[in-house]
Design goal:
- The N and C termini lie far apart (49 Å).
- It is built from five helices and no strands.
- Helix 3 runs antiparallel to helix 4 and helix 3 packs across helix 5.
- It is extended.
- It has 103 residues and is mainly α.
- The protein has a domain of 61 residues: AhpD-like.
Length: 103
């Protein structure tokens, strides 16, 4: 099912919903533009989020873009571990819902 060639089908969004699709791509470009955070930092955040959401397209795209922005393998590894900690932390904190209300 996962194949980067599938992304060519995004043209169908452009054809069938041109205004919202154009707005999305403009937003995406603006969100990743350097600002208070560098392009590299934004791409490392994107890698961590992509790993957490487990989107293979996003993982591939943002891994490539993070590297192009100068991210090292050590930075990518730390981003992956932050993603793992966040995902595991969510399971731990949601465990509070397994027990009765506080006394």
């Amino acid at each position: 099912m996962f194949d980067m060639k599938n992304l060519a089908r995004l043209k169908k969004l452009d054809e069938n919903a041109p205004d919202p699709t154009k707005a999305f791509w403009a937003f995406d470009k603006a969100a990743f533009a350097p600002g208070a955070l560098s392009a590299q930092t934004k791409q490392l955040i994107a890698v961590a989020v992509a790993l957490t959401t487990q989107c293979p397209y996003c993982i591939e795209i943002h891994n490539k873009q993070a590297r192009e922005a100068g991210a090292s393998e050590a930075q990518l590894a730390e981003a992956a571990l932050v993603a793992a900690a966040m995902r595991a932390g969510a399971a731990i904190t949601h465990a509070t819902h397994l027990f009765g209300p506080p006394a």
